[in-house]
Amino acid sequence: MLHVTLRQLQVFEAVARHLSFSRAAEELHLTQPAVSMQIKQLEESVGLPLFEQIGKKIFLTDAGKELYHYSRSIAMQLAEAEAVLEEMKGLKRGKLNISVVSTANYFAPQLLALFCQRNQNITLSLNVINREVLINQLANNEMDLGVMGLPPDGLDIDAEPFMENPLVVIASPSHPLALEKNIPLPRLAQETFIVREPGSGTRSAMERFFAQHNLILSTGMEMSTDEAIKQAVQAGMGLGIVSMLTIALELETKRLVVLDVDSFPIRRHWYVVHRKGKRLSVVAQAFKEFLLQEAAQVMQTVKA
Amino acid sequence: MLHVTLRQLQVFEAVARHLSFSRAAEELHLTQPAVSMQIKQLEESVGLPLFEQIGKKIFLTDAGKELYHYSRSIAMQLAEAEAVLEEMKGLKRGKLNISVVSTANYFAPQLLALFCQRNQNITLSLNVINREVLINQLANNEMDLGVMGLPPDGLDIDAEPFMENPLVVIASPSHPLALEKNIPLPRLAQETFIVREPGSGTRSAMERFFAQHNLILSTGMEMSTDEAIKQAVQAGMGLGIVSMLTIALELETKRLVVLDVDSFPIRRHWYVVHRKGKRLSVVAQAFKEFLLQEAAQVMQTVKA
DNA sequence: AGTTACCAATAAGAATTTCTTATGTTGTTT
DNA sequence: AAACAACATAAGAAATTCTTATTGGTAACT
Fold first, then answer.
1. B88-98 pLDDT, tens digit each
2. Domains present along chain A, CATH in parentheses
């Protein structure tokens, strides 16, 4: 490999531009011998003379002309790199890789949209995956930030709650319990529940809740999305437990109702998570703070 | 300006590629701490972290990914520059700027063509100009090599003869002297000569020759090209003095004849010239040697 | 848990590179 | 011939880039 230094190329570029060692030295705030030496070394490692002196003036040799071309090109690249990195420091630009758990799909896009609107030039990629995959990504550092309902225990995770995530029992409006008030919790044991697949956050939260209250719930069908559960509940196939945030539309259009069960809603939160010790990029840090400080309020506004 | 070194970028590129400081150190035949330091300095001058360590593995940050892109690009440029310069060293490639005096136009192209044929990848530019302009270019280092009939005295010129350049007297076949033998030189004083413009090499050689032999020649028309002189002589407007090389075609087709005058032909030579002290490029050097060693022979062959 | 292995960070000093000052050489100008 | 302008050269100072030796932290294996 050619043993040229960037310094040599910079000096060379200046000399070639001025066609003068002394002028170049001035421009670079160097002494003239320093320039001479750099050029000499450069010529040495290139193996060809780059300048020729005819009388008082100096000229570029053919080799010099070629190298001048490349020097300028490299200088351009560097300047561009500098500009890009400088922008990244100022949050003006950056990439943000976010993974959210399926359920968050009902509100995350709105938050992301708002954040992007405020901070132009940010390239954002949103990954909607289930809880298990997200935990995997977290372990392998394949994303900047994650949003999930309940951070896992084992791993070293930095998780902070930023918004409420009430789980409620939903039913078709025609369900016998639809109009009742203060339904006692044990009453649910008689009902069939349509649940998410094992590994889902909602599913495990639900199981833990029933276990805590010494209830055995009869699970009917398993569905892999909240959307499917809502459909099944609407069709009268049983009750469901979902995040309040996912059913705004169905409540409004009276396709579903929330049952008034004792001890409900289950009070949970949405967490923004990243692996402990991960150095967040400026953009990621900004988005995290945006979530912590404004997400709850923003979602309220949207709902109203 | 960013104070990055090429070394830093090289080291960074290796680390980014291997995602390991130790592997990069091996590849570069360095110790691991050396790599650590280079990266640290690079991060310092960039102002952003380039890697992040999660557990045992390291990953590129966004800034790192950007810089990686530019590092590779710069490395490519350098490799390309190296290849080009390496080729130039080996004569495989190069540029050659040659200026020839107008008269040389009759043979120079053939020589150049042969040289180019032998050495592919050489970019050649041939400049046909008159003697005065050529001397100017010589002084200003605006060309690699020149070909002229008589090198100027004043300047520091390195001139070497490489081929004969006999000047002969030409006439129309219908001219009274056309068939005479051993025409005495003074006889020419009665004839009218069609000559090149002042400043032309042929013109001054001619004037010097007549002055040496104490003859006053009567010049009729002045023409700025040898081609025009030949036309005029054919038309019977007088005699001409031109280089033998320029009239091969006309002799063959009997449009012109060479007069058998005493002391003729004027024995001159073609010279390859460059400013003294000029560092000839490898290509230029090669062409010069080609002229010195083969030109005469090649032109013989072509004529025959 | 304790041990081992691996990887990167840090510290100190050696080797190398890159500067500056001082001076020499060459070609141009007066 | 002398003065000037421009690059080359030499020697030593300053800065950098290495190496060796050591520390700290994480993961894997008894």
1. 887 667 778 88
2. 6-89 (1.10.10.10), 94-159+270-303 (3.40.190.10), 167-258 (3.40.190.10)
